[in-house]
Design a protein that fits this description.
Blueprint: E1 3-10, H1 13-30, E2 35-38, H2 51-54, H3 58-64, H4 67-71, H5 73-77, H6 87-90, H7 92-100, E3 104-107, H8 112-118, H9 124-142, E4 148-149, H10 158-166, E5 171-172, E6 182-185, E7 188-189, H11 202-207, H12 215-218, E8 226-230, H13 239-251, E9 255-257, E10 279-281, E11 299-307, H14 312-324, E12 328-335, E13 345-354
Length: 360
Amino acid sequence: MRTVAIKIDVDTFTGLKKGVPALLELLEDFNIKATFFVSMGPDNSGKAILNIFRQPGFLKKMIKTKAPKMYGIRTILSGTLLPAPIISEKGKEILIAIRNKGHEIGIHGWDHRLWQDHLDDLDRGMIKRQFFLANKNFEQILGEKPCFYGAPAWRINELSLSVQDELHPLFASDTRGNSPFFPLFKGKKFSTIQIPTTTYCLEELINLNKNPDDILLELKEDKLNVLPVHAEVEGGVYLNWFNKFLKKIIDKGYKFKMMSEFREGKNPNKRGEDSPLSWAFFLCSTRSRIKINIGLFFMIIYKVEELTIVTDKDIEKVINHWVKQGWSLDGIHFVTKEGMHRPTMAFILFIKEEKEAVED
């Protein structure tokens, strides 16, 4: 059977105010019900600019994806030169409209930027507060408790999974993979079933210089298919592309489901005991930016080469060696000692895309 779920992440104020209404209208035209994950708290998107200094290749990615055009100046400056609006409070009527039109709606964090950039710096109390604030606004606006969560930027760790388990959600979509599973991390089993994202998102394909329609190649018959969509992107400058893309999915014979319907035969409107699915192993993303997931359908892997003798020939030798093996240069970090002008060490970063899972 050919089925697919559309997972719509709403990361920003502009995404909720402009992107979601456009997507709701488009989905209504196709009679499609989707699953929305909404960031409920402050839109601090503008603070992403700091990643120019923290993450090699970030500026290149922003230029390649034409971020100002894709996300808009309001989003690029939000939380820096412009105040950070509380997303859910500024778009109450839109949140209600999502539910009233028959779509699922859950939580995509409180402060998306904080979670994405600093999750590993947050202690248990800080993580609990992120959930508490998001849940509070959700209940005040929609009059009910949220039944599912999706971590911002697919970032999780042992603490976030533990706190999430205490809330007993129907399911979560914090990861990327190819089938529903229960997480097992450092020997600890977690009880919230994960329904992972299974395909590329549009921005990733643009950044990789690939045809956005290649997402169609990731859809598999008789398998879990969860398509990630961003309200700021497919609900913005890529709305016309998304319209045509949905038609292509339908032409291939796929039917649309909401994500809760993939939760192994359970009533999506009721909480209950988890289905007897097998436990799966996976590794969470870490501050080192090495993201390896066991069971992933595709992934991005980073390699770091350390040089203690730094000359132009040594750097060229390392770069040429790994580029020939299919890796792409992602950046170079130099380390210098006080009073010295020449670097004493260099860290050369490479990136590589893999289509199959890797077990470590």
